[in-house]
Fold these 4 entries.
Entry 1:
Amino acid sequence: MQAKPVRTTDLKELKRRGEKIAMLTAYDATMARLLDRAGIDVLLVGDSLGMVVLGYDTTVPVTLDDMLHHTRIVVRGTERALVVADMPFLSYQVSTSEAVRNAGRLMKEGGAAAVKLEGGRAVIDVVKRLVDVGIPVMGHLGLLPQSVHQVGGFHKQATRPAEVERLLADAAALEAAGAFSIVLESIPSEVAKAATAHVSVPTIGIGAGPHCDGQVLVCSDMLGLFDDFVPPFVKQYARLADTIRDAGHAYIEDVRAGRFPEAGSPATAPGNKTRTA
Ligand code: KIV
């Protein structure tokens, strides 16, 4: 029997019941299928795609076409989780009508159930309009990676009282505009706690301590797949980079030594699926 899909309204209900929300990023169908079957509540097709898959230094160069492509393939691998697609830099800031068109494409062509965009009161008219036309919006406050060149790096945010006030006002504005949830990135744990108490929609933290209504991590970080740099708040639940490197070495040695394929082993097993023609 197919599992009942997670809806945006289910997340609000989880907050009401005091149950935590588990969210991870995914960028392809295989990862989506594995994490979906593991029971993840939300799969975010994050624009972190730019850094962990496409090889950029920041999320800034990611395009709407990149997001559409990866959203489609994540959706194809997902049966139960709520799939949220990130709106990339400058896909929602130029005008409200462009934002509606782009968010609409992520839903209609990409198959996402909701979009996420960065910012508070600066983008509130866009959030209101998207919600008005039936597009569920997840907000994103604290460290805004699309503004990395403006803030001067991937630093902790809301460390001064004026910034904390601003963040709380932005969170309240997002809730009033109809956002169904808010990501809080790289802010002090006590500020995340205050923001979580300040709004009735669920907060999802990353580098924001344990008091949020849910947690999100970049899948490649928590799987130990992207190990060039491990953010201090990440817990590695596996070390897939080591596993892949070791498997790669073993395969290369086997091929070079003539140990693979073994003499007498079938080229393809009869009746089995094969990727070769
Ligand atoms: O793009 C992304 O992966 C994100 C998460 C870090 C929340 O926005």
Entry 2:
Amino acid sequence: MHEIGNWIIDVETRAFDPSQRMKEFFGYYIDEVMSLENSLECVTEEYREKTKEAIEKAFLKGESYNIEYPVIGLHDKTFRWLRDQAKFYPAKEGKPAHYSGTVLDITERKEFEQRKDDFISIASHELKTPVSSLKAALQLMDRIKNKPAPEMMIRLIDQANKSMDKISGLIEELLNVSRMNEGELKLNKTTFTLAHMMQQCCNHIREDGIHKLIFSGNENLQVHADENRVDQVVVNLVNNAVKYAPGCSDIHLSVEKENSMALVKVRDCGPGIAKEKLQHLFDRYYRVDHGSHHQSGLGLGLYISSEIIKRHNGQIGVKSEVGEGTTFWFTLPL
Ligand code: ADP
């Protein structure tokens, strides 16, 4: 079957001849009659009048057009974004004036654009909070600079530092993604002991006094990998456990040998993740909406983690059930 749908319309008689693919785009059966009017009825309500007007206007003036609109298929009720490009051919050598058009399914591109737009607004919003807090701290320091009260100063410097760390972290995450998109993530491999790395990483969480990181498994297993990047993956998984499993104080880390791979697990006893969400977790910009328990984040952490593991020829995955906690795991070649 062709990827592109085609159609022809006689400007005078309005006789409309859509290809089979074109009918499928509008959710019609391939042997069913579909008029131009029928097809436009499938355009979603929000876009229907605008689309009809644009096409009528072009027809009246005998102009070619190129428009995009969303439809809901007549029988299959499937939502699709279509790009409809039509060229006008004036009457010539006995052939009547007509339009010849091509229609393309652009749903995937549109959805990606939408996610990207959402992402830009989330990213700006996420950056705005620490920037405002940093600005407030600096303004206060400026106001008291001639009569500094040491305690106040210490508090403000602390606030400024925390905001700055938040900002650097977000920028680092954004840079990581752009490097990955350009295929520029270089790995600096050495041989190191996984257990050793995992007992060193995440000190910021060990020190918070709220969470316990419990290590188990093979203490001696070594891998040949980029230690900083693998560390980054573990830190990200542990940070997520802290963030998304707030009532769970014990976070379990483990290392096992499985065939020729090292298997690392990070397990929490939090609320878990709904089955239908699991497959999207490692997608770029994907975030689960936690309703009233909003957590800040860019939806990039797991995407970056999965890219790092894939570049090492390892695998990454998740096992979770609502109410049963979540286990993220990844493997690395030994
Ligand atoms: P971010 O944390 O910036 O949203 P991530 O890519 O790290 O981005 O995570 C994507 C989504 O996966 C999060 O929005 C969150 O809903 C979900 N998630 C990640 N880790 C856990 C976990 N341990 N328990 C429950 N949900 C999680």
Entry 3:
Amino acid sequence: MNERHLEGRVALVTGGAGGIGTAICMHLADLGCRVATTYRNPEKTQTWQRQMRDNGYDFAIFACDVAKYEDCERAAKEIEQHCGPIDILVNNAGITRDATLKKMAREQWHEVIAANLDSVFNMTRQVVDGMTERGWGRIINISSINGQKGQFGQCNYASAKAGMHGFTMALALETARKGVTVNTISPGYIATDMVMAVPEPVRAKILEQIPVGRFGETDEIAHVVTFLVSPHSGFITGANIPINGGQHMM
Ligand code: CAA
């Protein structure tokens, strides 16, 4: 297969300036995609965009709080005007607000559900009709090992991440005959700022639970995204692919 077999395709990666997001953007661009991403923090993202340009990657960036439906509606229109119809959507943006339930404020619950789960509805709703009408599309939801097994201090995050895969399975049924696949990837602990923000003693205990003996690399997630967007992956839909170093086997 041609190494740039996605030439002309448009990919939207939400939260692309984060650790896993950056690797996904780069891998999709390497396959020939025109890549767009959304951001909430303009300074951070403009700096990221300049750094990426210095490395030969031209990513289009659009202001959008994916927790807000109207933002997604506007951003998707802007992206399609600037880049063309969206063929690939990677719902990658996400946040943590860890606390045990007894200490969890309502805001911590709602913020995490809105940013991690409402966002999947908000953005997918904008692109799914176009994909089914054109007869080709790839939707990939970046969930988490903690949506599969639960995690101390993450009632909010584990609920949102488990919910993402429910969404994947339902939508996969609705789009199966229209050339659009919908899949979940569930990364384990990947060496990103989000994981490094976990207090060191807790992190050390988590590392002990990973049979491979290390945290994952962002490229190891992006690699599976490129696998799922391949034209040869049209029979994979509604799946939840774990990438966790053996920490949780199903
Ligand atoms: N299992 C059972 N008990 C535990 C425990 C665990 N894993 N961890 C702590 N406890 C116990 C403590 O021993 C303590 O017990 P005592 O009260 O009897 O002494 C009690 O729970 C502490 O409870 P608190 O509510 O006071 O906890 P805290 O406020 O000190 O910290 C926390 C809670 C902030 C959630 C902290 O445990 C933490 O940061 N955990 C990490 C959570 C995590 O893994 N987040 C992942 C972020 S990265 C990510 O999410 C990416 C991805 O997709 C993988």
Entry 4:
Amino acid sequence: MSKKSVANLTEADLSGKRVFVRVDFNVPLNEAGAITDDTRIRAALPTIKYLTEKGAKVVLGSHMGRPKGQVVESMRLTPVAARLSELLGQDVVKCDDCIGDAVSATVSGLSNGQVALLENLRFNPGEEKNDPEFAKQLAANADVYVNDAFGTAHRAHGSTEGVTHHVDTSVGGLLIEKELKFLKGAIEAPKRPLVAIVGGSKVSSKIGVIKTLLEKCDKLIIGGGMIFTFYKAQGLAVGGSLVEEDKVDLAKSLMEQAEGKILLPTDVVIADNFAPDANAKTVSVKEIPDGWMGLDIGPDSVKVFQDALADCGTVIWNGPMGVFEFDKFAVGTEAIANSLAELTGKGCITIIGGGDSVAAVEKVGVAEKMSHISTGGGASLELLEGKELPGIVALDDA
Ligand code: AMP
């Protein structure tokens, strides 16, 4: 990456130093307050271990949920500290605040290789406001700053951007380095052919990424609810399917610009209502009757998409092919997930761009088989759109 990485820092740079690491420990909790998925904690382990092995005093900071600048008891990071202690095999010191004298005392008292976890950064209103005073207080406990929270790198907050103005050394963590390698690599110097698959509900939320990907990729496969806006643009009847009327002209001009690069489904699975147990049937996209709505791509479309993917060097996937939350309408999404897993085995670089597509590959049980699963939905979309992320721009140049 063009930014300095923690991997560039040696034991001499790190031993005995207070290293503040912004991580993304925004994990889901159940009603009893137990962690239901610790993927994000595991994703930060390589950076944490790198630092402890080099003798750093590691201070971790994260947000959880949306406490909106107030202390919310159910959003404390106490269960995260317990889980992290288990995963690291060493006790993690949990602080009750993220700034202030008590935190400074705890951090100064750490031995080399010890780890402390600050309290939820968003309990302090200065975090999301990127208040310089708050950032300065965070930096007061840090000799070195490491950003490894890819999921919040697109936000300029106190702990992602502000803090870098008050610390001499600001670098990216190993997770951020990996995210940039795959996501930027796919856009800037992909192994070709590069095929992008974009799905999900709305054209409006993906328009930025569709436009950029159209320029960069060799083929663009479109699925999900947004296909019906494209069909409407072609003058087809879409029944009760999801359509963004105000994006029909945009869809039309995208099709014209794309010069045949865009592939749309040829058949769809339609339902007589939006429910998991709705009556369903498969029809050609030219034959969607009134009163029915398309909720998945059909088997012929899957075949067309698999053929388009067959010889590709890189695939980027963002957004499901249908309403995969309902088993009956998850078939298309699952077939694409399985195809990508197979392609990885044949040497194709497969990148899952965050959010619902990650949930889909996990549901199918093929997450391990992908080259890269992004830990940031919004951040990965912005990177793929070619935007600069404030939490990365702020780091020292390599
Ligand atoms: P997004 O957040 O834009 O990636 O959209 C993901 C959502 O799109 C998922 O919750 C899907 O259920 C939904 N979705 C996918 N296909 C359709 C469809 N044909 N009709 C309505 N919603 C859909």
